[in-house]
Design goal:
Elements lengths: L1 E5 L2 H13 L4 E8 L5 E4 L8 E7 L5 H18 L7 E6 L8 H11 L14 E7 L9 E4 L2 H12 L5 E5 L5 H11 L3 E8 L5 E7 L6 H7 L2 E9 L3 H12 L4 E9 L13 E5 L9 E3 L2 H9 L3
Parallel strand pairs: 1-2, 1-4, 4-5, 5-6, 6-7, 8-9, 8-11, 11-12, 12-13, 13-14
Antiparallel strand pairs: 2-3, 9-10
Helix pairs in contact: 2-3, 4-5
Amino acid sequence: MWFIAGEHSSLSASFASCLQRNKIAFSSIRTTCHPDGEMQFDWPAITPSSQHVLLQLQSPYHTYTSALSLSREIQAKMHQAAIRCLSELIICLPYMPYARNPYLLDVMLSSVISHQNTQTALPCYTNVHFVALDIHNSHDPRICNLYPAKLFAEQIITFTGGHENCFVFAPDRGATWRAHKIAKELHAPVIVANKMRRKDHSCDIQIMSCGDEFDINECLKTRDFCILVDDIVASGETLRAAVSCIKNIGTKHIIAVITHTVIAPVWPLLNDIDAWITTNTFPSSAQFTIVDIAPFIVSAITNRT
């Protein structure tokens, strides 16, 4: 049984359509987040199942607390429905700021794994898995960290006309792994930069390397499109510094590929970016190219081994 919970209507609707096409049973959970952080849930009927998947689509500020509340609510509702045999719970948080709150994952796990409440006799799960989209610098084996490199590459090619005329730019070493994933799909070189953040949160970015197979100067002279890859745009300082660096080296066109556009940038910097590709984890500007990640996530969960 799958549950869709969250305030993001477009992504919720996409998940619902995808599950319907795949003939997967699901129910929607209406959630309301109050100013004090408390969550209110409007639950559908829960049916017995050996596996339960929770698609949690809350705002970034309440992701962990709401998912924790939901996991506990699921247990309570299953107790009411006299459901005891539970083998697996999958909690999918498309946007999961794990690097900022790693201890909260332990709190969530302790609430749902092998924990039998003697007073309420809540059921427990023998296996709990987390699925997320592009977690920054996470190697936690408990999390399946997905990245839609192929989907991004397909959109990139519609702008560049092919892979021969572009290179992929990682604005810092933390972005290197995702840059290489896209570069593999495009058969393109990767240029890695070094980022230094100042006390005022502004950034300075300088080119560091291009790998052993390519010459930086050749890439810059022969390739017109820079594919600027990053995980998230919140303040926009990293992107601002990266665009400045790319423009200084003479690149003709910039395509920004951002997994999570939390706050759509409105500054004049957009005039220097030819195309903006992002996912629908957050509501985005109509001028962006949106990659729907619902089918990608559903496929990853249903086809996993």
